[in-house]
Amino acid sequence: MLAALEQARAALATGDVPIGAVVLAADGTVVATGRNVREAEGDPTGHAEIVALRAAAAARGEWRLDGCTLVVTLEPCTMCAGAAVLSRVDRVVFGAYDDKAGAVGSLWDVVRDRRLNHRPEVVSGVLAAESAELLAAFFSHQRTTDSSH
Fold first, then answer.
1. How many other CB atoms sit within 10 Å of the CB of residue 90?
2. Is the pTM of this model over 0.90?
3. Side-chain half-sphere exposure of 40, counting CA atoms within 13 A
4. 33 dihedral zone (left: phi>0; alpha: psi -120 to 50; beta)
5. In Å, what is the CA distance from 51 to each residue of 61, 132, 133?
6. Are strands 69-74 and 91-96 parallel, antiparallel or unpaired?
7. pLDDT tens for each residue of 87-120
8. Which of 6, 39, 41, 49 is catalytic?
C-alpha cells in the first residue's frame, strides 16, 4: 500500500485525483504500478487500477493476472472492479472506501457478484486513513482554488 500511496502522490503533479495502484506478483514483488492519468492524458479510462492492470499484463505478456494482487488507495469504481474481475487477479486490496462510487462493497459489490465467473478475495481498509487524508486534502485544495476564480 505504501507504493500505491507513492503513486497517488505522483498524480498530484498532473492535477489528477491522487489515487495510486500497484499489481503484485504472488511472491509480493511489484509487477506494475499506476496512478490516475485522466487529466494528464485526457483519458476517461485513465484510472490508477486500469493503468496498473494494463502495465502488469504487458509486463507478463498476457492478460490473465492470476496469482496477482491489485492494491489501490481507494475502493475501485465499477469500471475498475470489472477490470479486476476480467483480469483474473486473485485479490483486491484497497485503502479508503468510496461511498459515492465504490464497487467493492460500498454502492455495489461487483467483485463478489456470484453471477460472474471470477471472484477475487477482498481486503479493505489497509492504510485507509492515509489514503482518505490524501484525497481530502486534494479536494479541499480544489474547492479553495475553484472558489477564488
1. 15
2. yes
3. 17
4. beta
5. 15, 21, 23
6. parallel
7. 999 999 999 999 999 999 999 999 999 999 999 9
8. 49
